[in-house]
Design a protein that fits this description.
heterodimer; A: alpha/beta; D-Maltodextrin-Binding Protein, domain 2; 2 domains; 14% strand; globular; B: 300 residues; mainly alpha; SBP (chain A); Bact_solute-bd_prot1 (chain A); Extracellular solute-binding protein (chain A)
Chain lengths: 453, 300
């Protein structure tokens, strides 16, 4: 805002008024159902678009006279969240079906942006096919369900067997502690120059990817409930685990085991890793998600790389000192939801049913390298053999932890991202960054904190 | 009031009727201004005193001055204020303004083709949309970008300013982009300086620098004031350029107030707080403007 803002505001207001009135017509069209979803920032990756188009055609055929309008939003995750929140605030712009990250869903439920789906789910036979944990993915604190999950995901270490061979490391690598991970990275740095030894997402640019794939994979290996204490219903401050996790990040970037710091902090790092660093065999170890394979599929994947299934190995990420169960993974995922201000909730639900029918759910799991949440899909041979490594990542579900399903979580996550960025950019020591986080946390959650030194 | 009524109403009535008539063509504009200009600004001021959020909250409530108190206690906000001042002084006062004057002065002495070419190049930078300029300069300054390619070719050490000194990189970018405006203003101003005055000073034996200091600068004082004011206000509000180049990072080393405001309002969903910061930015702009206005008023 600035003193020339009046003019800008005026123009913006006029443009907005024009757009809104223009949208008014289509918003009230009773035969069109609008679906908003995130589109990959790499334009060549069209896995999700293709799948939704396929379902939309099916839906239009099964419901003559009805139309599905796709609203792909091409943006980084953070920008996507902001965009759909703004769209959902007004009935003129609200889509009828929206793709919600479980990371954000509780926050959006609290804000009254979403519609409870219990009345529909109660009449839907297929719901019994969903795994129990999946059913709770979109269950709010009020006990009602606000979304139908389309898959889940787990996290682990991906490593390049060719680079490992050059460094004299085993192809069945299985680190037992953080130190072993770092030691391996140091070996690669020594023996295979020119290769980035280890990528751990960090900072604000990568958004929730840094917080979940990077920080929380570390933090949840330091003890029980390191972030939020469900017994006390309070957020944890001052924990050693938090400082140790930041120290791990600090070590990776200070010893130059990770990507160049300016690249690591760039918002494009995720695309960079999947589209360039891994396929070009410039990165040895990547702490990343189970879905990575979808980027290299022959169609819609953007960067076809058929050799990945033999080149890349997977290993579970270890706990800090190897304490049982010895493996750490976090599970997340996305759901299909209906905004409170949708004009066509019934039609929207029908589309969700189509999206998550057994046939389409299977299709999505195979195309999107998703971990199935429907038991009947998980039992299908086509799913079990779909993507190499799917068995490995499905096996991690049993040790997977979930992020605190609370409205305040996105804000807490953003504070964690800032702490990571400060440490990575070498603006703060891990101790200092952890203290700043504690301070910020107190004001973010209105003092509902408990010290666990 | 109809024409017949106006004619019978006597002289006073007639002037009032005339006033109404004269105003009536402006009526639509006035209504639109009130609706779309005063309306949103009023709404902004209101939001700044609430705890409105984009998500994660059932309903917003009035919180008085809490957002403003939070801002002054917020290290991130204070950092943004300092960076905004550094950015404004570096790129607007020192960069655009001085460089614009120098270019305008040099171009008066240059030959016609040089003048035309320089003018075209400088103005192109000004015409390019902000976001395009942002991406251009990002690819120029980036670690694997044009500047380093050139430096490497010249066997000079590479730089990574977007990471090590981001505020300097974005300041350069803003100078590159905004100098044309100052140049145009000063070109106009310099052509208004009467030739006789300069010549008589020359006859009296005043050198180039003394002529600039004692003749030219005092005579174009008002243009300097206007230019400084417009440049500063423009620079205070630069967002797209910084967002495209650094996103305010790394850390928050290039997070000026507009970027901080966007981050709070749309990344952290704190619309209320972000709007309060926007109002504070307005205050910073007003402070600068009032200083310049005073300078303009003073007689030499």
């Amino acid at each position: 805002m600035r003193p020339t803002a009046p003019l800008t505001l005026l123009t913006a207001a006029v443009v907005a008024a024009g757009t809104l009135t223009a949208c008014g017509g289509s918003g009230s069209d009773r035969n069109t159902v609008k679906v908003a979803f995130i589109k990959d920032t790499n334009s060549r990756v069209t896995v999700r678009d293709d799948y939704i188009k396929l379902v939309a055609r099916q839906f239009e055929k099964a419901n003559p006279g009805k139309k599905v309008r796709l609203i792909p939003i091409q943006a980084s995750e953070n920008d996507y969240y902001t965009k759909i929140q703004q769209m959902m605030r007004s009935p003129k712009t609200a889509p009828d079906v929206v793709y919600e990250d479980t990371f954000l869903i509780n926050s959006d439920i609290e804000a009254g942006l979403l519609r409870p789906l219990d009345s529909y789910i109660g009449k839907w036979d297929d719901w019994s096919q969903f795994e129990t944990t999946a059913k709770t993915a979109a269950k709010a604190q009020d006990g009602r369900t606000y979304g139908v999950p389309d898959g889940t995901d787990t996290r682990g270490l991906w490593f390049n067997k060719n680079i490992f061979e050059k460094a004299g490391l085993p192809a069945d690598w299985r680190p037992r502690t953080w130190d072993e991970v770092l030691e391996t990275a140091r070996t690669i740095k020594r023996k295979v120059p020119g290769v980035i030894p280890l990528n751990v997402f960090t900072g604000k640019g990568a958004g929730e990817a840094a917080v979940m794939q990077g920080f929380e994979m570390l933090l949840y290996g330091t003890g029980d409930h390191p972030l939020y204490d469900p017994g006390a219903k309070k957020w944890v401050t001052g924990s050693k685990g938090f400082r140790d996790s930041l120290t791990f990040i600090d070590t990776v970037y200070k010893e130059k085991l990770g990507p160049e710091v300016s690249d690591a902090l760039s918002p494009n790092i995720q695309t960079n890793v999947a589209a360039e660093l891994l396929p070009e065999e410039k990165l040895a170890i990547d702490l990343d998600g189970s879905w990575l394979g979808q980027q290299w599929q022959k169609t819609g994947g953007g960067n076809p790389w058929p050799e990945w299934s033999t080149t890349l190995g997977q290993a579970p990420f270890p706990t800090q000192h190897g304490a049982p169960p010895g493996r750490v993974s976090l599970a997340g995922g996305w759901t299909w939801s209906v905004p409170q201000k949708s004009q066509q909730p019934d039609l929207a639900w029908k589309l969700i049913e189509t999206l998550q029918s057994k046939r389409n759910a299977l299709e999505w799991c195979v195309r999107g390298a998703q971990i199935a949440v429907r038991k009947d899909v998980a039992a299908e041979p086509r799913y079990r053999t779909s993507v190499p490594g799917i068995g490995f990542f499905t096996g991690l579900v049993e040790v997977s932890r979930y992020r605190p399903a609370l409205p305040a979580y996105p804000k807490v996550a953003s504070a964690i991202g800032e702490a990571m960025e400060a440490v990575t950019a070498d603006d703060s020591s891990p101790d200092r960054a952890a203290k700043d986080y504690d301070e910020q946390l107190k004001s973010l959650v209105d003092g509902h904190v408990v010290a666990r030194p | 009031m109809t024409r017949a009524a106006a004619e019978t109403a006597g002289p006073a009535g007639r002037t009032r009727a005339a006033a109404v008539l004269r105003w009536s063509p402006l009526a639509p504009a006035t209504v639109i201004l009130l609706l779309f200009l005063a309306g949103p600004i009023g709404y902004c001021v209101y939001i700044a005193f609430t705890d409105t959020q984009l998500t994660g909250q059932e309903s917003a409530s009035f919180v008085g001055l809490a957002n403003f108190r939070h801002a002054f206690g917020d290290a991130g906000f204070r950092n943004a204020v300092v960076l905004t001042l550094v950015f404004t002084v570096l790129s607007s006062l020192l960069g655009q303004n001085t460089l614009g004057l120098a270019l305008a002065g040099l171009m008066r002495r240059a030959s016609r083709p040089v003048r035309a070419l320089t003018g075209a190049v400088v103005i192109t930078a000004w015409v390019i949309p902000e976001i395009v300029a942002g991406f251009l300069l990002y690819s120029f300054f980036e670690r694997r970008g044009t500047l380093n390619a050139v430096l490497e070719w010249l066997q000079l050490p590479a730089q990574n300013w977007l990471f090590t000194l981001p505020i300097l990189a974005v300041s350069f970018a803003n100078v590159w982009r905004g100098t044309a405006f100052s140049m145009l203003i000063y070109s106009a101003a310099l052509s208004e300086v009467p030739q006789e005055v300069t010549e008589s000073a020359q006859v009296d034996g005043a050198g180039g620098l003394r002529r600039l200091w004692h003749i030219t600068l005092p005579m174009i004082r008002r243009s300097i004031g206007t230019n400084l004011m417009l440049n500063t206000l423009q620079t205070l509000s630069v967002f797209g350029l910084i967002w495209a180049m650094t996103r305010g990072g790394p850390g928050n080393r290039s997070q000026t107030l507009p970027v901080f405001m966007y981050d709070q309002a749309f990344m952290k969903s704190l619309i209320g707080y972000g709007t309060a910061v926007a109002l504070l930015l307005l205050v910073v702009g007003a402070l600068f403007s009032s200083v310049y206005l005073r300078l303009l008023r003073e007689e030499v």
